[in-house]
Amino acid sequence: MRNVFLFLVLLSSFGLFGQTNKTILAIFPHPDDETVVAEVLIKYVRLGYKVQLIIATDGKDGTRVTKIPAGDTLGNLRKEESRCACKIMGIPDPVFLGVERLDTKIGVGKYFKEHKKLLDTLKVLLPVIKPDIIITFGPDGDTHHSEHIVTGATVTELLLQEGWVEKYPLYYVAWTKEIGEMGELGYVHEKYFNIKLDYSNEDELNGLEAMKCYVTQFTPEEMKEDYDRKVKDPNNFLYFRRFVVQKGLKNGF
Q1: 173 - beta bridge partners?
Q2: Rounded distance, CA 7 to CA 10, Å?
Q3: Domain that holds residue 128
Q4: Hey, which end of the chain has fewer CB within 10 Å, N or C?
């Protein structure tokens, strides 16, 4: 909980308690996951919102494109990459919660403890941050990544446990079927979309600039492909689906 305590001290020192400006809170499992909504975060900073990023793990096992072995060295590098991206996006440094992993690769018992750590820590942080909007991954986990799915499910679980569904509106990233099948992503039927959020060309370019920070996670070729695709595409918007719950008891289905 040391990271949480330091974050609370930081909030106090910057006078964010009792703030009047609206706050967006993005919660993701790994450094670099925030790139999914970088343009949106940049847009809302431009509009005067306070934007805070929470990252559950340090991503020390993310060796997909780097020769750096899994471990603390890689984890520390990934945290620096995320701080680099946040600086470009104009948002504060991420809050890293220090969760080891969110799958059973570390053993079932240890996974249960790490999941509880994430749940308990968010339970402390949300009433302090008082987000007007929470953004995370939905049941598809964006790429069907198990830690993506668990992170989004943990946020959802917390809101249901504490009766906070209406208090802290939660939005999942939602891809169209066309984009999902093209990029091997999870997708949502369009009739369930609730938000179509556009952003400017400048927001997009700043998001692409932030992407360059993640040299341990994306090859130069992948970054160029992403840049070319986004710049070529005139449709600058993302979809989101709000988590809602029907209340009230009935005597049967």
Answers
A1: 240
A2: 5
A3: 19-242
A4: C
- What's 78's DSSP letter? H
pTM: 0.91
Residue 5 has what pLDDT? 53
Q: Is residue 253 part of a domain?
A: no
Total structural domains in the chain? Answer: 1
User: What CA–CA distance (Å, rounded) separates 26 from 35?
Assistant: 11
> What does the pLDDT look like over 170-207, one tens digit per residue?
999 999 999 999 889 999 999 999 999 999 999 999 99
Task: Examine residue 141 and state whether it is found in any structural domain, yes or no.
Answer: yes
d(CA 100, CA 58): 8
CATH of the domain at 180: 3.40.50.10320
Residue 179 placed within a domain: yes
What's the average model confidence in pLDDT over 15-33? 79
Short-list 10, 22, 8, CA closest to 51: 22
Q: Say if 227 falls within a structural domain.
A: yes
